[in-house]
Amino acid sequence: MNIDDLYRTNPFESTTSESSPTKEANMHRDLKGEELLSTVLQVTKKMGEMRSLEPLLQYAIDELLRFTGAEKGYIILVDNDGKLDFKVQRDAQGNTLSQVDEISHTVINNVITSGESLVLSNALTDPRFGAARSVIELRLRSILCVPLLVANRTIGAIYLENREFENRFVQADQATMELWANQASVAIENARLNDELEVANKHLKQLDEMKSNFVMLVSHELRTP
User: Fold this and answer.
1) Rounded to an integer, what distance in angstroms lies between the CA atom of residue 165 and that of residue 163?
2) Does residue 7 form part of some domain?
3) Is the separation of the CB atoms in 192 and 158 below 8 Å?
4) What is the CATH number of the domain that holds 79?
5) CB 192 within 8 A of CB 56
6) Residue 52 lies in a domain
7) Pick the residue with more confidence: 150 or 30?
């Protein structure tokens, strides 16, 4: 799907005939294609203007939950040692989630390793992941997981889920999320580098102050009989 397709249709609106529960779950998807694209672009523009990583990620996950209708959302980054760092985890009400274990690490690892998105309409019946322990124990249904890529390097992933309804995310959603993720990845990487630079500058400032204090102390000792 290209940008013109996003203008013609709302990718977050299921094209299949829905029973009452699923239809009710999708009633909030009232954004038209042009409005949705405008929302995505506005969000990525604001993210590009933010220089600190933590508020940027909090803003990003709140907006993702708002326009996708996910129950829970996570943004995971890969740290310098290659380990997964769960930076933000929220539910649709804006509450911070404390249990990062209540998520399919199988899906996340697959996306980060492959660098390719996954859309599961029902994880429990999916032949690739239905047998995964996390999927069975957590009764996971709708999952949308998209990698964050910078120069073909995976720096993390976005993980969204809805356990109440099947087909909460459909294949067309992948195009919208990848469009968003491509822009968000650059903003996230820039903010992370900016935070690291600030820490380095703060450290250099502390070293400079220590050096000045040491010079003053030595000078005082030399002047003292």
Assistant:
1) 6
2) yes
3) no
4) 3.30.450.40
5) no
6) yes
7) 150
Examine residue 61 and state whether it is found in any structural domain, yes or no: yes
Taking alpha carbons only, the member of 56, 47, 92 closest to residue 73 is 92
- CA–CA gap between residue 112 and residue 116 (Å, rounded): 7
State the Cα–Cα distance between residues 27 and 128, nearest whole angstrom: 30
Percentage of the residues of the chain whose pLDDT score is greater than 90 = 28
What 8-state DSSP symbol labels residue 92?
T
| Residues 4 and 29 sit within 8 Å (Cβ to Cβ) | no
Within the chain, strands assigned E span: 72-78, 84-91, 118-120, 142-150, 153-162
Tell me whether strands 84-91 and 142-150 are parallel, antiparallel or unpaired.
unpaired
Looking at the structure of the chain, the number of domains it has is 1
pTM: 0.73
Per the listing, tokens 């909030």 go with: 28
Find, among 219, 161, 153, 192, the residue nearest to 57 by Cα.
192
Number of C-beta neighbours around residue 200 at 10 A: 10
- Residue 15's domain spans which residues? 3-191
CA 213 to chain centre: 44
Q: Rounded CA gap, 171 and 13, in Å?
A: 11
Amino acid at 54: E
Does 62 reside within a domain?
A: yes
